[in-house]
Amino acid sequence: MIEALQFEFMRNAVIAGCFTSLICGVIGSFVVVNRLVFLAGGIAHAAFGGIGIAFFFGIPYMLGTLGFSLIAAMIMTAVVLKNKSRADTFIGILWAVGMATGIILLDMTPGYNVNLMSYLFGSILAVPGSDIGWMIGLSIFTITAAVFFYRGLLAISYDDEFARLRGVPVNLIYFLFIGLVAVSIVIIIRVVGLILVIALLTIPPYIAEKYSRSLAQMMILSTLLAVVFNLSGLWLAYTYNLTSGATIILVAAAAFFFSMIADAVLNKIRPETV
Questions:
Q1: CA-closest candidate to residue 91, choices 65, 53, 82
Q2: Residue 274 confidence (pLDDT)
Q3: Which domains, ranges and CATH numbers included, belong to the chain?
């Protein structure tokens, strides 16, 4: 792996992987604790509508995709806050409509053939320096928001009704962090792909949650786990000439199943030792 760092594309991939891990570690912890994984998945898939709009109308990718994703995210968040019991149905509809709209618009784009697989699995080994700049900026903003709103995040993550009674701006925090989910997905999806974004937003925080005593610990551990998964996946992909995004996902999935097996074994051992 060390010799691979002599190549600029590999150095960019490592840097992108680390900043992606930081963003997904912080945002993903909020998503997992608040049981908003389906919402995050809905935003990620709806982003395809923005991709289609950007190519069909010839506007910059970032502008079209970010605008569409933020609108979809705000609508989904409003539905979740108003009627949680029916939110999954509405999110599923927007999920499907967003993807279908994007695919149809890409089909209708004259003289342009878009490889949708590149948006599903991305290409972390082809990360340009400009995208790394976006990731650094988003990382700084994400950390700043998490620190500034930490007490509010902690309150709504465990009891949002009590948080409302204590005067915590629950709706503002929800909209802000779901907006961050949308921005993170748009910036990262072109680099690592839709599937890897969802995997990094869910798997590391899920594992970290079981070994953390606070939300802050969960965010830190989740980030570290995501870094390990990214670097391990990159090393395996480089060594065995595999697709980097899919390899990173399988490394994360292996860790996920290992943690479940370890928990099952420990739960059986503990009663016998009492």
A1: 82
A2: 45
A3: 3-265 (1.10.3470.10)
208 contacts: CB under 8 Å, gap ≥ 6: 25, 29, 217, 218, 219, 221, 222, 225
Distance (Å) of CA 181 to CA 5, 47, 148, 239:
30, 11, 17, 32
193 CB contacts (<8 Å, ≥6 apart)?
A: 118, 119, 120, 121, 122, 123, 245
> In this structure, how many other beta carbons lie within 10 angstroms of the beta carbon of residue 165?
10
For residue 55, give every residue at least 6 positions away whose Cβ sits within 8 Å of its Cβ, in sequence order, or none. Answer: 61, 64, 105, 106, 109, 112, 114
Q: 36 is written with which tokens?
A: 């908003």
CA 76 – CA 228 distance, rounded (Å) = 32
Q: How far apart are CA 216 and CA 45, in angstroms?
A: 28
Q: What is the pLDDT of residue 117?
A: 62
Question: What is the number of alpha carbons within 13 Å of residue 48 lying toward its C-beta?
Answer: 28
Structure-block tokens of residue 234: 């990159």
Spatial distance between the Cα atoms of 143 and 177, rounded to a whole number of angstroms: 11
Check residue 228 and give its pLDDT.
95
Distance CA 133, CA 20 (A): 12
pLDDT at 221: 97
Please report the pLDDT score of residue 194 as a whole number: 79
CB within 8 Å of 191: residues ≥ 6 apart: 16, 20, 122, 123, 124, 127, 131, 135
The low-confidence residues of the chain, meaning pLDDT below 70, are: 1-4, 85, 111-122, 190-191, 271-274
Rounded CA-CA distance 31/246 in Å is 22
